[in-house]
Amino acid sequence: MDPELTNEASFTAGSNPASYSLVELVSFPRGSGGGGLGMRMRNLGGSGEGFGVGDASVEESTVTDQSGSHGRNGGSRGEKRRMDVGTFHEDESSKFVSTSCSYSDLNEPNGKRMKPSGSRDENDGSKPKAEANSGTGNKGAEEKSKPEPPKDYIHVRARRGQATDSHSLAERARREKISEKMKILQDLVPGCNKVIGKAVVLDEIINYIQSLQRQVEYLSMKLEPVNTRLNPTIKGFPPKELATPTFDVTGMIFGLQAPREYTQGPQVEWLDLQVGNVFERPT
Amino acid sequence: MPSIKTRFTYRFIRAVQKLNKNRGVSSSMKETYRRYHMIRVASYASMASAVGSKRAWSQAVLRKIRNHTLHRDLKKKCGIHALIRRRKVSENPRNNLNFHQENDLRKLVPGGEDMDFCRLLNETAHYIKCLRTQGLHPKTQLLER
Q1: What is the pLDDT of residue B88?
Q2: What pLDDT does residue B24 have?
Q3: CB pair distance less than 8 Å for B107 and A184
Q4: Which residues of A touch B102 (CB under 8 A)?
Q5: Which residues of chain A lie closer than 8 angstroms to B31, CB-CB?
Q6: What is the pLDDT of residue B61?
Q7: Is the dihedral of CA B19, B20, B22, B27 positive or negative?
Q8: Is the CB of residue A74 less than 8 Å from the CB of residue A55?
Q9: ipTM of the complex model
Q10: How far apart are CA A211 and CA B108, in angstroms?
Q11: Which residue from A103, B41, B89, B104 has the least number of CB within 10 angstroms?
């Protein structure tokens, strides 16, 4: 292996202290054999960094595929790498750059080389995220980001092929909030994890709330001193709720006649067990 | 700070004891139903007051209980504030394909008519948690007495 290869880590740390940390960005595959332009292109896409060619440090030939990415700093910084000038041309390097994510501070030393990437940045209508973690992805093409210093507004990443005007952004944020809450509810309601689809989950939630409310009613009935004399093994809730389960507390307190009809209707099959006993007792 | 569960249990037991103290001798059907309803109301009221006014649903429950009359409740639905809130709410679910379920959910969760969907989901989650404690612990304890 070339000695330069071993210097890779140190190179990255040393050469870019002020800008984004390369360590997290540079996660390209190591030991990818082969050489030549093709390999280099792939790895550069993986590393997600542009690189400077030409007066940048010269790269090795085939073995040091990864090291090509480090050369991008241009002549302004001291390179410890040798770039193979012969294999790279400026236009080729720009091709590499265009396939990988670009970074704004790369634009400065590598003037026109970064132009294609620069134009790509403008396509990103939304405010890009400050962290440049797209480098960790193999193909950075999906996410376009710039390591700009974070401003004081919320950074939203626009995905590829999605509209980026403020309305759809707000809509998308709202939808994400709602789906997040739906996930929470799914965890609360038993048996809801397996189903997929908002409608079914909502149905399950509604059923669950209804059954919980029925349970409260049932237990309230059981707390009646009349009922405690009965066999406490009466389990189960009324099979179905015929009336709409509206929450109607006022009806409960003061509409004594109305709720009587209300409860007699749907719960008659359940109450028969208990009401029957009431009738049998001598009043 | 005692948990919601303990606060609810305490209040509920107190309410039932009060009910038992004032209970009449007659055990007519009407009386039975009346008691049943009082106990159910006490359960919801104890839970709502244990939660406090932090949540929209507990506020709605307490408001309904305190308002007493059906008349006033109906008037509140048609009041100008309710109308404004409803209008704001109905502007939201234009994209919503689950309008039917959303409506049912709003009817189930107290106070759900006037919130937007996102808040409704929040309140539903908390409501479910409280309903569970309401249905389980103190009642089984009381039954064993």
Answers
A1: 64
A2: 66
A3: no
A4: 202
A5: none
A6: 87
A7: positive
A8: yes
A9: 0.82
A10: 11
A11: B89
Q: Tokens representing B42?
A: 């006490």
Q: Residue A203 is encoded by which pair of tokens?
A: 């149905």
Helix axes of B29-51 and A198-222: crossing angle, nearest 10 degrees:
120
Closest CA in chain B for residue A197 = B98
- Residue A244, both tokens: 């709409």
Tell me the two tokens of residue A212: 């919980």
Q: Which residue of B has its CA nearest to A232?
A: B143
Please give the span between the terminal C-alpha atoms of chain B, in angstroms, as a whole number.
Answer: 27
Chain B residues in contact with A251 (beta carbon < 8 A): 70
Which tokens hold the place of A181?
């809450």
- CB-based contacts of B91, cutoff 8 Å, min separation 6: none
For residues B122-128, give the mean pLDDT.
91
Task: Kindly give, in sequence order, each residue whose CB lies less than 8 Å from that of residue B125, ignoring residues fewer than 6 positions away.
Answer: A181, A184, A185, A188
pLDDT tens digits along A195-230: 788 888 888 889 999 998 888 888 877 776 654 444
DSSP-derived 3-state class of residue A81: coil
Token pair of A33, please?
Answer: 């054999």
Distance CA A117, CA A124 (A): 11
Instruction: Report the sign of the C-alpha dihedral through residues A148, A154, A155, A158, in that order.
Output: negative
Q: Which residue has the tokens 């309710």?
A: B82
Mean pLDDT over the full length of chain B: 78
Interface test with A, best of B14, B17, B36, B133 (most A CBs within 10 A): B36
**Higher-pLDDT residue of A51, B53:** B53
Residues of chain A with Cβ-Cβ distance to B135 below 8 Å are 212, 215-216, 219
Q: Cα separation of A198 and A45, whole Å?
A: 38
Query: Is pLDDT at A106 greater than 60 in this prediction?
Result: no
Average pLDDT over residues A2-24: 44
Instruction: State the pLDDT at residue B53.
Output: 84
pTM of the full structure: 0.49
- Whether B139 sits inside 8 A of A203 (CB atoms) is no
Q: How many residues does chain A have?
A: 283
Tokens of B105: 């959910």
Q: Taking all residues of chain A, what is their mean pLDDT, rounded to a whole number?
A: 53
